[in-house]
Specification:
The protein has 5 helices and 9 strands. With about 190 residues, the protein is an alpha+beta fold.
Length: about 190
């Protein structure tokens, strides 16, 4: 039952207050005890004395198995991370003078990314004199958006940045969820008024 360097919690001998409100392992309030007596009660039970509310008057300490507590917290954090949905953004690069076969191949890759639930950033790269014809790149982006309109929506319109033109597309179900949550928020806000 040695002292464990804790994040935010002081344990056993690290607690340096004259008295504390003691809570048992079961969650019962035992009352206010001198800190030495509280340490002794915790060590007799084979547990740690953990300061859980240092700012209250007197500070609140609980008798617990701190190692088991830390383990349970790590498991809960791991479960929470598993449940989080993380949207990945993939990128597909095109050139303004792309051949039909290359276009179809890249379109299949974009389709696969969208089916996996990823957003896709489409980039048209211009070189040299191609910069004089941004309409060719825009035509490719519009053609791709038209080909994928059944399964994807345009999240950000085509725009030029330096020598590249970008467009972001997302799968329909992901954007539908986003629209649903924003419409729910709007209806809640209107209901409050």
């Amino acid at each position: 039952m040695g002292t464990i360097a804790a994040q935010g919690f002081r344990l056993n001998e690290k607690i340096n207050v004259p008295e504390c409100r003691l809570i048992s392992y079961n969650g019962e309030q035992l009352g206010i005890y001198p800190i030495e007596a509280a340490r002794r009660i915790a060590s007799d039970a084979g547990m740690d004395l953990v300061e859980i509310a240092p700012n209250s008057n007197p500070p609140v300490c609980r008798i617990m198995d701190y190692g088991k507590f830390k383990y349970d917290q790590a498991i809960k954090a791991k479960q929470a991370r598993k449940k989080q949905s993380k949207v990945e953004i993939k990128e597909m690069k095109f050139r303004p003078k792309i051949d039909v076969g290359d276009y179809n191949t890249k379109k299949k890759h974009v389709l696969r990314f969208l089916e996996q639930g990823c957003k896709v950033k489409i980039t048209i790269m211009f070189r040299g004199r191609e910069m004089a014809h941004p309409d060719q790149g825009l035509g490719i982006l519009e053609r791709l958006a038209e080909d994928l309109k059944d399964i994807a929506v345009i999240e950000s319109k085509p725009k030029m940045e330096g020598r590249n033109m970008h467009m972001l597309i997302a799968p329909i179900q992901a954007s539908a969820k986003k629209k649903q949550t924003t419409s729910d928020k709007k209806s809640e806000d209107q209901g409050k008024e």
